[in-house]
Amino acid sequence: MRAEKEEPFRSVAVLGIGLLGGSLAMAVRRFLPKCQVRMWARREQTLAQAISQGLADFADTNICHAVEGAELVVLCTPVSTFGQLVEKILPCLDKNTVITDVGSVKQSVHASIGNLLTVKGYSFIGSHPMAGAEKQGLSHARADLFQGTTVALVNPHHVPDSKLLHLAKFWESLGCRPLLLQPAEHDDAVARISHLPHVLSALCARNAMSGDASPSTLSALASSGFRDTTRVCHGNAEMWTDILIANKEPVLKATSDCMNDLATLRRLLEQEDRASINAWLERARLNRSDLLPNA
């Protein structure tokens, strides 16, 4: 046992320095200044950029060197690469280290690397901070990215409460509100609140130029409605391909429900059922007000 301290962890290793990894390092620097930040990236150039910005106490392309002595290790690469990273860091981890991630899918992550780490005697607790932006990379990272956001914590492997509370305190220190969920509950929710909106945003952008209007006319008429609706689909396509495949079943269910609802609206339009169309739109307005009461 060690004495109570201000920082929940004395050192954190950030593996992957994109938007989330870079923002995490910046946030730790600002809000947990006594916590040592260690970093790993595949490219020397990325690490050099992070070091030049003062984001790390230690940075290395050798992943074992990066996690050495870290009390918390955070996987900030795409979900599809987690398995490779964990295989590389397993021989270098301390048994008391807490491992977490920032991925937006949890069932597949806990079924793969979560199970592996647990069998090997390590502590893995999933994290998903509901923070991000359509522009990726370290150049778009910022220290306040996590301020006022919810972070889902997922602990199906029953890591002791003491470690779970330390991880919750870590995220709280960066401005997040922790919310404990089960993996399936998390994935079903984010499929509808995050992944489906991205798909529909992409659908609007894909179909905008499918009609008879010229691109110049469409561009001239595109305003705030189109801009706001399609903003999120400007994100990295490769990253979102990973997300949709990793959360395939909940996304398929959400898209199926959406297609049925759209078919209902088509039928109401064909019938020119004004009252039912109004009720359809009003239900959407009320749902948004319930979900985002302050928006």
Description:
The chain is of the alpha/beta class and 295 residues long. It folds into two domains: 11-181, NAD(P)-binding Rossmann-like Domain (Rossmann fold), CATH 3.40.50; 186-291, 6-phosphogluconate dehydrogenase C-terminal fold. 52% of the residues lie in helices and 13% in strands. The chain has twelve helices and nine strands. The strands form two sheets. The protein has a six-stranded parallel beta sheet. Helix 5 links the parallel strand 5 and strand 6. Helix 7 packs across helix 11 (248-271). It is globular, with a radius of gyration of 21 Å. Residues 1-5 have low confidence and may be disordered.
H/E order of the elements? EHEHEHEHEHEEEHEHHHHHH
Average of the residue pLDDT scores: 93
- In terms of per-residue confidence, which ranges show pLDDT below 50 for 5 or more consecutive residues? 1-5
| CATH-defined topology of the largest domain | Rossmann fold
**Rg estimate, integer Å:** 21 Å
Could you give the distance between the termini? 45 Å
Going by CATH, the architecture of the largest domain would be: 3-Layer(aba) Sandwich
How can the largest sheet be summarized? 6 strands, parallel
Number of domains: 2
If strands are numbered along the chain, what order do they take across the biggest sheet?
Answer: 3-2-1-4-5-6
How many helices in DSSP terms?
A: 12
Q: Mind telling me the CATH superfamily name of the largest domain?
A: NAD(P)-binding Rossmann-like Domain
Strand content: 5-15%
Q: What is the highest CATH level, the class of the largest domain?
A: Alpha Beta
**What is the number of strand segments?**
9
The helix fraction, in percent, is 40-55%
> From the helix content, strand content and strand pairing, which structural class follows?
alpha/beta
